[in-house]
Write a structure and sequence with these properties.
The protein is mainly α. It has one domain (2-113). The chain is built from five helices and no strands. The protein has helices at residues 2-15, 23-37, 48-64, 75-91, 94-113.
């Protein structure tokens, strides 16, 4: 729950940078984009750790490409620090890692199709 609160704080901090009248539109766009880009990768059988690792792969790629910066002691950093230890055993499962990487690549491709992350090298 605390990790989710940190993630919500991180998202709110980003949205709060926009003018107040634009915030609802941004939130709706983010939700709609998530439905179009992430939901196709999720089925009833998708292991929660697979999604966590997919998010990790995606963030790692965006960080390596210089698109995302994760500040020390930021809400995002705190959430990641809480979540990663719980994904450690899944990260040691080769099948889950392959599946999570495949999902991350698919999500990233969907996001680029939506016009996001232009200029960022595709995940391989």
């Amino acid at each position: 729950m605390r990790a989710a609160e940190h993630l919500q704080t991180a998202a709110r901090e980003l949205i709060d940078q926009a003018p107040p009248n634009a915030r609802p539109k941004i939130q709706r766009r983010v939700q709609a984009t998530a439905r179009r880009c992430v939901s196709p990768s999720v089925t009833r059988d998708t292991h929660v750790a697979t999604l966590g690792l997919a998010a990790y792969h995606l963030l790692e790629h965006l960080h390596e490409e210089g698109y995302v910066s994760i500040g020390t002691f930021s809400p995002l950093s705190r959430a990641i620090d809480m979540i990663l230890p719980h994904l450690e055993s899944a990260a040691n499962d080769e099948e889950l890692m392959i599946d999570s990487r495949t999902k991350a690549i698919g999500i990233f491709q969907n996001l680029q199709t939506e016009g996001l992350f232009r200029g960022v090298v595709p995940m391989a």
